[in-house]
Amino acid sequence: PEEPHLRTAEAAALLGVSTRRVQALAAAGQLVAWRLKAPHVPGSPCLLISLASVHARIAAAPRPGRPSKK
């Protein structure tokens, strides 16, 4: 990727969530991510998260926990 990016753990730390939650947000399209081959572990994918999408999620500041019923 050409734009600035973070590893899953780095994005999780900035967002205050687990790495699994970052993976789920990326899978749901709520974070922009790229899946690449990890150079240090043959056959293992590496997920990179767009720094801009992390900043956008922080700015949106979703409330923690389940959404309230309306």
Please describe what this structure looks like.
The chain is α+β, with helices and mostly antiparallel strands and 70 residues long. Helix content is 39%, strand content 20%. The protein has helices spanning 8-15, 19-27, 51-60, and strands at 5-7, 33-37, 45-50. A three-stranded antiparallel β-sheet has the order 1-3-2.
Number of strands: 3
Largest sheet geometry: 3 strands, antiparallel
Order of adjacent strands in the largest pleated sheet = 1-3-2
Strand content: 15-25%
Specify the overall morphology.
Answer: elongated
Please give the alpha-carbon distance between the first and last residues. 40 Å
List the helices and strands and how they pair.
Blueprint lengths: L4 E3 H8 L3 H9 L5 E5 L7 E6 H10 L10
Helix pairs in contact: 1-2
